[in-house]
Design brief:
Blueprint: H1 6-21, E1 26-27, E2 49-52, H2 57-70, E3 74-77, H3 107-120, E4 123-129, E5 140-141, E6 147-148, E7 152-153, E8 157-158, H4 181-186, H5 200-215, E9 220-224, H6 231-238, E10 246-249, E11 269-271, H7 273-285, H8 289-293, E12 309-312, H9 331-342, E13 347-352, H10 398-410, E14 417-422, E15 425-430, E16 434-439, E17 445-450, E18 456-458, E19 477-479, E20 484-489, E21 494-498, E22 502-503
Parallel strand pairs: 2-3, 2-13, 3-4, 4-9, 9-10, 10-11, 11-12, 12-13
Antiparallel strand pairs: 1-22, 5-6, 7-8, 14-15, 15-16, 16-21, 17-20, 18-19
Helix pairs in contact: 2-3, 5-6, 7-9, 9-10
Bound molecules: ligand LM2 and calcium ion.
């Protein structure tokens, strides 16, 4: 460590003094005055996505400016096409046509959301259901009024033209065994009419649907049920998309299954389901050291290559199962999300949904079934009391927002990245840009730790992003002239510091 100018120490001490009297104030690094030490600029890299599950287009449009400010780069939406009627959360996964007209909003509202978010600097990635149509045995009418039958969608698909698979491999043509790639791809997933995605007419129409989404300005798609289409089909359907368009295939990794996520890398990126499943056990057990190794040479599981992998703590399917953590795990979930955001494996997608007890329950809807606009009330967080249907707003939990900002400010792990482990306390360093320490213990843990940061007072963004005027949430953390910080890391919690959130002094 170099010698410190007196002013620097004074500035650090002033920050501490302010903290002690509760007058904490922060300033963004950009406003560094002459008395400030030289610090690297925050990077403002924005590779974090957020899945706003069942949020309406209007609600997403309204949220985009604050998402941008927090440091989110893009939103994953629920499927936007016409779907069956009903209250359950999953109606969007039973397409009736490719009209952009759903209980989440109209085509105009969708387009307005895309532009509002683009203006704020946030991309829209939309969920594309391409593998199948409805699973209804009786004829019906979709959200936008299109008539349909299980294997007949007038003007779009019909059995007589060979648009559907009837696999003939199982008694009811439903997938019965995931050990058979043929069944997984050509039989029906829970009775959902399975499109013949290897045929030219089906591929052509699906390409047109994606082209329509591109024309509306979306910046990427999640390929729903990609596992249930052959990689060649996914490649063919997505081949003509723009060069920088994000394609993320949903291919759930199953230990003994013949269909492997790796097969889909030709078409683009792929979700790594094993990451969140492995993380769940690690966080519950508290040996956070293992979280640092996920995806590395030392980690035991084999994952997708980092550059093509998208990771998540949970999504709308897994939060309804028992293999990952969910908002119901409270503080452990917040900690897991922070570890994901600090990970240098893959790229993270934060999840944000609504509270539910019943697996089938849909989001709050009006009398016609239109979903009500989500809003995040004050006081969201792991301890908030939630009633059925309340928007959980995980993306706005203070620690999650703060660590999204941390990741945006520190950027990708470079040469100066570091980790250190002391029992159940693990620290992740990003050179002089940022540092984060997480506590796997079930009690608060006092420690004196080397941060690698320049001396000074930093906001602990795990308490929340600094306010618009730069004021820290909670007490600033002092990094001394040797780069050490004396801290008590909350039980199952963390402390996160970065150069984009300096305490004023
Ligand atoms: C997915 N990825 O591959 C989605 O992420 C997942 O949420 C979808 O299932 C699935 N694929 C099909 O797109 C959800 C939900 C299912 C639901 C389906 C269809 O998890 O429970 O199935 O959407 O809406 C429901 C009923 C099921 C019934 C089926 C057909 O739960 O019992 O099967 O509809 O009517 C007879
Ligand atoms: Ca299929």
């Amino acid at each position: 460590m170099r010698d410190l100018p007196a002013a620097r120490v004074a500035s650090a001490l002033l920050g501490l003094a302010l903290a002690v009297v509760g007058l904490t104030a922060c300033s963004p690094a950009a406003s560094s005055g002459p008395e400030r030490p030289e610090r690297p600029e925050p990077l403002a890299s924005k590779d974090v996505g957020v899945q706003l599950f069942q949020w309406t287009w209007d609600a997403i449009a309204a949220e985009c400016p604050s998402l941008a400010e927090t440091g989110y780069g893009w939103v994953l939406t629920s499927p936007p096409q016409e779907h069956i009627l009903g209250e359950a959360w999953w109606t969007a996964y039973q397409p009736v046509s490719y009209r952009i007209e759903s209980r989440l909003g109209s085509r105009e509202q969708f387009a307005a959301m895309v532009s509002a978010c683009a203006e704020a600097g946030v991309g829209i990635v939309t969920d594309a259901v391409l593998n199948h149509m409805t699973g209804q045995d009786e004829p019906g009418e979709g959200w936008a009024g299109s008539r349909y039958d299980h294997y007949d969608y007038p003007g779009l698909w019909s059995d007589s033209e060979g648009h559907f698979h009837h696999c003939g491999l199982t008694t009811n043509d439903d997938i019965a065994s995931y050990s058979s790639a043929a069944q997984v791809r050509e039989c029906e997933l829970v009775n959902l009419a399975d499109l013949a995605t290897e045929t030219v007419p089906v591929r052509t129409r699906l390409r047109e649907y994606l082209a329509d989404l591109v024309s509306l300005g979306v910046t990427g798609v999640r390929i729903d049920a990609a596992k249930h289409m052959s990689p060649a089909d996914v490649e063919a359907i997505t081949a003509e998309l723009p060069e920088d368009f994000l394609v993320i295939s949903e291919v759930i990794r199953g230990a003994q299954e013949p269909v492997r996520p790796e097969e889909y890398l030709e078409a683009g990126d792929v979700f790594e389901f094993a990451w969140g499943r492995d993380l769940a056990g690690i966080v519950k057990g508290g040996s956070l050291r293992l979280a640092l190794e996920l995806g590395s040479q030392e980690g035991s599981s084999t994952y997708l290559p980092s550059a093509a992998a998208w990771i998540f703590v949970d999504n709308h399917d897994t939060e309804r199962g028992d293999q990952t953590l969910s908002y119901k795990d409270g503080q452990d979930y917040a900690l897991a999300t922070a570890l994901m955001l600090a990970s240098d494996y893959g790229r993270p997608v934060v999840y944000s949904g609504f509270a539910f007890r019943d697996r089938e329950a849909g989001p709050p809807q009006d009398a016609e079934g239109a979903v009500l606009d989500a809003e995040c009330p004050e006081g969201v967080g792991p301890e908030a009391e939630l009633a059925e249907g309340d928007w959980v707003c995980q993306h706005a939990w203070p620690s999650i927002e703060g660590v999204v900002g941390w990741r945006a400010a520190v950027g990708p792990a470079g040469e100066d990245a570091s980790t250190s482990v002391d029992g159940r306390v693990v620290a992740i360093g990003r050179g002089q840009r940022g540092w984060l320490v997480a506590n796997g213990n079930r009690e608060p843990t006092p420690q004196r730790l080397a941060t690698g940061l320049e001396p000074g007072a930093y906001c602990d963004v795990a308490q929340g992003s600094p306010a618009e005027d730069g004021a820290c949430v909670g007490e600033p953390v002092l990094v001394d002239e040797e780069g050490f910080a004396e801290l008590t890391i909350p039980a199952r919690g963390l402390v996160a510091l970065h150069v984009g959130a300096l305490a004023q002094g």
